[in-house]
Amino acid sequence: MKLTRRKFIKNSLRSVLGVIGLTGGSYYYARYVEPRMLAIRNFTLENDKIPTSLHNIKVLQFSDTHVGYHYDLKQLKELIDEINYQRPDLILFTGDLIDAPNLYDFPDELPVLLSQLTAPLGKFWIYGNHDHGGNGTEKIKDVMEAGGFRLLQNSHTRIGDHRGSFILAGLDDVMLGRPNIDEALHLVDPDIFTLLMVHEPDVADEIQHYPVDIQLSGHSHGGQVQLPIYGYLITPPYAEKYVEGSYQLGDRLQLFVSRGLGTTRMPYRFLCRPEISVYTLKSKEL
């Protein structure tokens, strides 16, 4: 396989970092400070298919908490307080609740905390690869259901009322689940505004050929460690092309990739703050 220049530089930098590590103040900052520097990212979703009754609706996405791996219940409680402070109308979780379900003891407090999240239009979630891993599929599902979240696994629902609504769909995890986009969008009217949750962002290259207006993803963590000018060093499979922020694919699909909240593999964040995203719907009819 041909080694590209970018991959060569990435591998070289990884080797250097592995040898010298993060030292002194840089280590302390990356290990203990930035992982707790939560950023709130605000986006506007303007589309002529958004009904006037949903104008200014706030949709909040959070992703990749990886509870159990340097992300504890105290941090989760602080996150929940911040999410509720944002007063979202709809809350979406795009996967990877627990880092290693087979090693986690699942305290009773976990679903209680999740149940404290409030949103008048509901709370929905999808599986990430860590949720399916470590025999976590049913355990995570039970916790999320107890926390008041509804799973969208290759399925969709309508958000709104008789005055107007949009489609919210969810795809099963691409790496360890059984994703089926045709099933998820079965009988969806392409003239209705459609938002799709997919854990892994790179499948947007396929999703753009379906009647989807917005794709919300996580999984990448933004690389966790970024360098000035160069950017991120390495990201997981299916998050190598689309890493953070927003992307326009074709004439229709807009992709948003969250850097997530927790960490995995390495307990560091450097120039890559954890984040939650708030999307405000705007109707062009007003």
From TrEMBL:
GO terms for molecular function: metal ion binding; UDP-2,3-diacylglucosamine hydrolase activity. The keyword GTP-binding does not apply. It comes from the Bacteria. Gene3D superfamilies: 3.60.21.10. The chain crosses the membrane at residues 12-30. Keywords: Hydrolase, Membrane, Metal-binding, Transmembrane, Transmembrane helix. GO terms for biological process: lipid A biosynthetic process. This is Metallophosphoesterase. It comes from Halobacillus mangrovi.
